[in-house]
Amino acid sequence: MAVRGRVGLSAEVPAAPRAWEAVFRGGVVVALASFVAALCCLRTEVLHRAFAFHSHRPAGSMEINLQLVRNIVPPLVAEKHKGQDGKVGVVGGCSEYTGAPYFAAITSLKVGADLSHVFCTVDAAPVIKSYSPNIIVHPVLDRNTAVEEVQKWIPALHAMVIGPGLGRDQKVLQSTKEIIQKCKARGMPIVIDADGLWVVVQDPSVIQGYTKGILTPNVVEFGRLYQAVLQDPVGKENYQDMLLQLSQALGNLTIVQKGQTDLISDGATVLMCSLEGSGRRCGGQGDLLSGSLGLLAHWAFAAGKDRTNGVNPTLIAAFGACALTRQCNHQAFQKHGRSMTTSDMIAEIATAFHKLFES
């Protein structure tokens, strides 16, 4: 009778049918409960996999990834002294290319670095200095003592960005190769972009296996790297698989394959950054990305595992730099349209950073 009362059966229904109906309804309740429990377990497992980044597929949502970047941003407090929030070096700049190292260096400052240094050739230095008094410029890169001159400053830096405006002078490229080795010995994050990638193409072993290294090739540069390392031309198959292969062949080095959708991999995971940007592809955007990435990499490693949830710090930093670059591109394009330049994007860093990582 207790069962009949619970399921709302009337007194006029014969006893046998009432018992059968009670059993039937009880079975339905059990089945529904099991189904709901299974859904809950599945949802929990999916969320765990997405957050843990243990997949060869694009992992996590945009919001989860952005939150990880927010976790590594150091707070601005009065007790800090100059230099605590980051000192970034940029190796690059020659007579033909003075804008690129400036863009990288000023971006690192505007993202939050306390100091930014540019190590460039002698004739590039006065031009770069004229762009901004905020950047420390060292005219040493084409001197015979270039490696020694840069090495003196490495202990004072937290990260090095190598390649913006570097050029292809063989003497400078050889010095750059040796500077990479010095940075590795110091154990600092190294971001390699532009003509710095040409150094890697010529000798992949210079950065191979260094897990604090990050390469940021565009489509053409990625093709060169893939050919140099894997002895095989880039095909039209799955770009994520090719990115994984290249990263693994380089000893699980983190690679940012810039494109319509930015793909990021450390050889174990592929992240995608598809934040809305624009169709404008003015030169210099990669310098904004590399400059911000150098600082974010320092922040990510300094934050520790509690703040990164055990995720590879280079993945978090790379995702943050890609998202910030795309947001700056989007905001600048909304204001300037077709006439947008990278200088317009630099002007958007403060509001873009706040929108993504501080609001």
Please give a structural write-up.
The chain is of the alpha/beta class. The chain is built from 15 helices and 9 strands.
Number of helices: 15
Poorly predicted segments: 1-24, 28-59
Question: What structural class should be given to the helix and strand makeup?
Answer: alpha/beta
Counting DSSP E segments of at least 2 residues, the number of strands comes to 9
How is the main sheet built?
A: 9 strands, mixed
Rg to the nearest angstrom?
26 Å
Q: Strand portion, in percent?
A: 5-15%
Along the chain, the helix and strand elements come as HHHEHEHEHEHEHEHHEEEHHHHH
- Trace the largest sheet across and list its strands: 3-2-1-4-5-6-7-8-9
Shape: globular
Distance between the termini: 59 Å
Helix content: 40-55%
- In round numbers, the mean pLDDT is 87
What oligomeric state do these chains adopt? single chain
